Amino acid sequence: MEVYTALSSILIIIVFFVAILIQSNKIKILRQQLHHNPTENAHLQSYAKKLLQEESEIKVIKKLRKEKGMSMLDAKKLIDSINK
Predict the structure, then answer these.
(1) Alpha-carbon torsion angle 27, 73, 36, 60, nearest 10
(2) I want to staple 39 with a disulfide (CB 3.0 to 4.6 A). Which of 2, 9, 47, 81 is the partner?
């Protein structure tokens, strides 16, 4: 009985590990596509401009990070490119 429990536990761990690897690769690809050069993304720029009219830079950066999944550096670069 203990052997079956150990084997099933190992099998479950392997399945979850493979699932995590697959999801990590998908996330990596999506981030590369999204953040290739966020300052050239017209949709993000217009969205950020609209937010900047209503809120401070810090709040806009926080919103971009939360809603669009941007890194802090990418969000800051986008805001800086708009303010130039």
Answers:
(1) 90
(2) 81
pLDDT over threshold 80, residue 1: no
Comparing 32 with 80, the larger pLDDT belongs to 80
CA gap 62, 77 in Å, rounded: 13
Q: Given CA atoms 49, 54, 57, 60 in this order, what sign does their dihedral have? A: negative
Residue 36 pLDDT greater than 80, yes or no:
no
